[in-house]
Amino acid sequence: MSKDTPTFLKRNGLSLTLLAIFLMCLLAQIVTGHLSWNEELRQAGAAPMSFFEYLNSGHFVAATFENWESEFLQMGMYVLLTVWLRQRGSAESRPFQEKPEEIEPGLTPWAVRKGGWWSKLYASSLTIAFGILFLASFYFHALGSWRHAVDERRLTGLPPIDFTKHLASSTFWFESFQNWQSEFLAVLSIVVLSIFLRQDKSPESKPLRAPHSQTGT
Question: Which of 139, 169, 188, 200 has the lowest CB atom count within 10 Å?
Fold first, then answer.
């Protein structure tokens, strides 16, 4: 390897760091969620769950996929909306006057070179991927939320609730909308704040000397 060739860690530093932070936060969520749910069980006079039993519980599944669902919805909608919509001055918007793409020869993805339906599918593959991840997360959120609702009703001596009835309940949709609104607020914040504010050397920010009216990075 040439001295000028970046190492594996340097080439993938951002994704590896984000993965490490994600795993640490997920582990912290599991540990604290396990303790929290067991405390609720003890207060209700029920036997506490083991660590591995908790990983299959409605409490953990619902809380985890409820958040993933909103994240994938946010990213998918943002990718899709930025195809057509612009925000003057935002670093997160495509510019109004776009320059021709600069593409390195020989590095075009296989699907684009193949053409036809492969190319058309690849042209929307990012949005499709986020859509699939959102739908999968939505399903597991609904399943986990229902199982957790059944567990809570059992602890209070109530009969279990039907899955479809829970899916139509205000409780389930409250869980979803409380996360969805915060995700779109976060996206709105970076779209608007990047008009006026800067972060030196960040690709999410315009150059320091760029005027507020400059659109795109």
Answer: 200
